[in-house]
Amino acid sequence: MAVKTIYLDVLLVQSLYVNYFLLRAAAKITHSRLQLMRCFLTAAASSLFSLLILLPPLPVLLQLFCKLLAAAATVTMAFGIHRESWLRQFGCFFVCNFLLAGLLLAVSSLSSHGFATWGNSYCYLDFSLLQLILFTALAYSLLHLCSLLRNRRRHTDERFQVFLRLGGKTAALPGLADTGNNLTDTFSGVAVIICSAEMLFDVLDGRTVETLRGYRLVPCTTVTAQGLIPLFRPDEVCIRNLSTGKSRAVDAMIGISGSQKSAIFHPNLME
Fold this sequence. Notes:
The protein is an alpha+beta fold. Helix content is 39%, strand content 22%. It is built from six helices and eleven strands.
């Protein structure tokens, strides 16, 4: 078997590049906030784990342990440790790694000469950084096209209802799916449904928002203004599509802002 040369600088740059986009994917899927510089620094730090490829073959269980440890450290550096979202972020990041590795292994096995060198569950790609960038651009273009096609299939006349439960009080509010509501909780990464104080009058039942579970203030920017809005976590949230009859229990925070007559949520909550 021919021994392939592994260039240390190329290995680290490739690992940084791949880790960066895996973190962005995990942040997107889990609706988690991830600053650009923090993502880059985390990807750079986690690329050091790829040096395990240079060691002699390790036992399979030890490889799995190292992979889980690397994923846990990477997620913690990127998102911090939050009881409500860490396991979800960790699971998503690890699954993204697993799927990417499976895809690379499948494509490499179909190639007559192979382009990937494997060692201790880490991969060294035997092609240039320019090719990696082009492949990434192609993948992003396909994902963007799929997103556009999916959005075109949505009916603009769909009607929704948002059910909230807080303690012994419940409310059924008119819902509005709006892609402009990209607000997420800074700490947990959970999506936020925007409601006016008037809509929540009955369910709050005289309680101040400061006394509710999960209360915090988060920055919010709209077309006309920016400021802080209060959030709280209800006991249960369910969104029902009145046009199709489909219902979905969702993990969401409630933000109090505006004077609109509908609970505004991002359409992705129904997917």
